[in-house]
């Protein structure tokens, strides 16, 4: 049998050709992909068979991708993860969460989005041990009726964390005395807004939609069956933080 | 003869630079795109992981068991993995010697080391220490395959100097990756291709193809003048001068030892396949 010699030139050509043909061939048959399809895989069996799997959400998915798969409006995703929305909510990606200041314990990242979607859609997903959810996300789930009171309280303790929101821009105190606002029984939502709290921040604490400017907080909470005294201290803490 | 050798040597360098530039532009484009900045025209955009054939290898376990890719790996890695395997079956780990941009960078840094250390360059470690260390990369390979399959994540990315090289400026690289990159570049001043020799998991896998490849380095004993020029030229410190066929798991098919390059006698050390010469 004859020996076949390969020169450097032939080797170089073979390498370039093999790579070129492989890439070109896979492009022709439509197999070449350098990024994920942005469509999560579906659950194959069980009661949720056929549904998109929250576990398949990747960090590169945009809020828009998640909306089209799980039917969660972008506006609600942006509200839940408001701390990470600095530009267009549609193009915000869960992988960007990690770039923001994280809680002392646990992490708010792509897995937080998976957990949120799971809770929103009731499609089961087991989050990682150190996964956390912003209070804003939990408040939205509660407001939208995705969690009952007991479940909300349980999840708040287990996953809830405070994430610094870009909307929380400290403002100068505007109470009558010019000093820090002290929340009392007659304090209105308008006073909270004037003290620098956003609607989202307030809702994150009380877990329901905030009232009108002129509405007294105690009356509004009482009408919703909530005890004002339970939320007074939390709201006061928020006000104190903003006015520091 | 000298002129011909210089031309051949330049050919491999040209191929290396070509692949380096292509990978660099593609990955830089991706990072620019991620940051919402203007991209380089005429070049595609893909992450470093998407254009690394080793990504195809580490995702195989998950691909076979659940039909999905591990995080950050896509179909392109499978295509490149198949191409690299085809090349390896034919020519051995030519991917390492001709394509891998990180091998290229180590080689180029090594040229500076060669100027600084002269003959001591790439001969610093004693064989007693060097030989067992050459098997370390198989330990790395097993660890990477195991941890990736178990976690479904690219665990190695945090330690991968190749990833760090192309992404160090993006803010997405773990500090461990940057430290390892820095160490490898420093070591490259003393040892040729230290990462390839001691730690590269993909090099370890491709190195196994040296045992079965169709075309390989062959030395004709009858015309060999035993000058050991082939040994001196080998970046991986393989003793070519005593072998008829080089089956060493560290060969990267760079052809530096052949009669096209280092060997002064024509048709004595060749890259060949098939039976005995007619």
UniProtKB/TrEMBL annotation, chain A:
Superkingdom assignment: Bacteria
Keyword list, A-Z: Membrane, Transmembrane, Transmembrane helix
Protein's name in the database: Uncharacterized protein
Organism: Sediminispirochaeta smaragdinae (strain DSM 11293 / JCM 15392 / SEBR 4228)
Annotated region (Disordered), positions in chain: 163-182
Transmembrane spans: 12-32
From TrEMBL, chain B:
Keyword Transmembrane: yes
Pfam annotation, one family: Fer4_5
Ranges annotated as spanning the membrane: 12-32, 78-105, 135-156, 168-191, 198-217
Coarse class of the protein's main subcellular location: membrane
Span of domain 4Fe-4S ferredoxin-type: 215-244
Record's subcellular location: Cell membrane
Recorded GO MF terms: iron-sulfur cluster binding; metal ion binding
The protein's name in its UniProt record: Polyferredoxin
Gene Ontology cellular-component terms listed: plasma membrane
Stored InterPro entries: 4Fe4S_Fe-S-bd, 4Fe4S_Fe_S_CS, NosR_regulator
Keywords of the record: Cell membrane, Iron, Iron-sulfur, Membrane, Metal-binding, Transmembrane, Transmembrane helix
């Amino acid at each position: 049998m004859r020996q076949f010699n390969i020169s450097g030139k032939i080797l170089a050509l073979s390498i370039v050709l093999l790579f070129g043909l492989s890439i070109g061939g896979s492009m022709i048959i439509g197999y070449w992909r350098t990024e994920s399809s942005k469509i999560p895989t579906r659950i194959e069996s069980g009661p949720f068979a056929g549904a998109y799997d929250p576990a398949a959400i990747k960090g590169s998915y945009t809020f828009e991708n998640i909306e089209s798969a799980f039917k969660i409006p972008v506006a609600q995703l942006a509200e839940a993860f408001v701390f990470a929305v600095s530009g267009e909510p549609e193009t915000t990606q869960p992988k960007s969460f990690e770039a923001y200041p994280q809680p002392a314990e646990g992490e708010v990242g792509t897995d937080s989005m998976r957990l949120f979607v799971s809770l929103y859609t009731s499609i089961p997903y087991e989050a990682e041990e150190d996964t956390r959810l912003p209070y804003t996300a939990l408040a939205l789930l509660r407001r939208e009726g995705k969690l009952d009171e007991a479940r909300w309280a349980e999840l708040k303790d287990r996953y809830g964390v405070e994430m610094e929101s870009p909307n929380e821009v400290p403002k100068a105190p505007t109470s009558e005395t010019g000093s820090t606002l002290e929340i009392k029984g007659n304090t209105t939502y308008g006073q909270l807004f004037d003290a620098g709290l956003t609607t989202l921040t307030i809702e994150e604490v009380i877990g329901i939609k905030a009232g009108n400017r002129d509405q007294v907080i105690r009356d509004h909470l009482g009408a919703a069956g909530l005890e004002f005294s339970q939320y007074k201290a939390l709201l006061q803490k928020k006000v104190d933080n903003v006015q520091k | 003869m000298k002129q011909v050798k210089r031309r051949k040597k330049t050919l491999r360098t040209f191929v290396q630079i070509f692949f380096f530039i292509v990978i660099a532009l593609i990955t830089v484009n991706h990072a620019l795109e991620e940051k919402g900045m203007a991209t380089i025209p005429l070049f595609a955009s893909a992450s470093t992981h998407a254009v690394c054939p080793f990504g195809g290898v580490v995702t195989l376990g998950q691909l076979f068991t659940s039909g999905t890719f591990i995080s950050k790996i896509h179909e392109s890695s499978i295509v490149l993995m198949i191409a690299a395997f085809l090349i390896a079956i034919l020519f051995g780990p030519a991917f390492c010697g001709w394509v891998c941009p990180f091998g290229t960078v180590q080689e180029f840094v090594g040229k500076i080391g060669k100027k600084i250390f002269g003959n001591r360059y790439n001969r610093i470690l004693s064989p007693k220490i060097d030989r067992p260390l050459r098997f370390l990369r198989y330990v790395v390979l097993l660890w990477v395959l195991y941890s990736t399959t178990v976690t479904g994540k690219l665990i190695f990315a945090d330690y991968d100097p190749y990833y760090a090289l192309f992404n160090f400026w993006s803010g997405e690289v773990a500090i461990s990756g940057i430290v390892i990159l820095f160490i490898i570049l420093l070591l490259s001043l003393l040892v040729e291709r230290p990462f390839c020799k001691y730690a590269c998991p993909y090099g370890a896998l491709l190195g196994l193809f040296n045992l079965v490849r169709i075309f390989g380095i062959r030395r004709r004993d009858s015309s060999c003048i035993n000058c050991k020029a082939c040994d001196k030229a080998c970046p991986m410190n393989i003793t070519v001068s005593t072998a008829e066929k080089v089956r060493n798991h560290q060969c990267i098919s760079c052809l530096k030892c052949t009669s096209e390059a280092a060997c002064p006698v024509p048709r004595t050390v060749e890259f060949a396949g098939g039976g005995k010469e007619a």
